[in-house]
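Pipeline run #58 for the internal structure catalog. This entry was flagged by the ingest filter as a single-chain record with no existing model, so it goes straight to prediction. Upstream metadata was stripped on purpose; only the residue string is passed forward. Reviewer on rotation: M.T. Logging verbosity set to normal.
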Amino acid sequence: MKIKSPKDFWAGLMFIGFGLFFMIVAQLSYQMGSAVRMGPAYFPTVLGGMLAILGAIVLVDSFVLTGEKVAKFHFRPLLFILASSLAFAYLLKPLGLVLASVALVFISAFGGHEFKWKEVAILSALLVVFAVLVFVKGLTLPFPICPSFIDNCPIR
């Protein structure tokens, strides 16, 4: 058989793999129960089975229907997003929410196909205001706003 739609072929295999993985882990880790008295493994097992069936349908369709080829995978954006997330995590406590958020936006923006200082600066300023209002003021999460070496932080 010839694969007519490589994108659907790999998507079907991925769905089947994830579905079987969650079914097996649920069976090994939790009690199944029955349809009347469901155990903790019942829902992940049924959902994993449905995902595996969907994957099998997509996989069979890949042999019948003509579709797109799999696009080339770009590692640069993935690496910069990963680096920005790690930088945010490690900079949050010593530098505070404001500077860690700015670092997050600037590092992740380098992963894109174009980088404009003005746009990234505006985006980081908006994200900082949003993060402070939502997480610190609204949800009252104990995030440090300013760097730890500044005693009198103007934002409280």
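catalog note: Helices lie at 6-29, 42-64, 75-109, 117-138.
catalog note: The chain has four helices and no strands.
status: ready for reviewer M.T.
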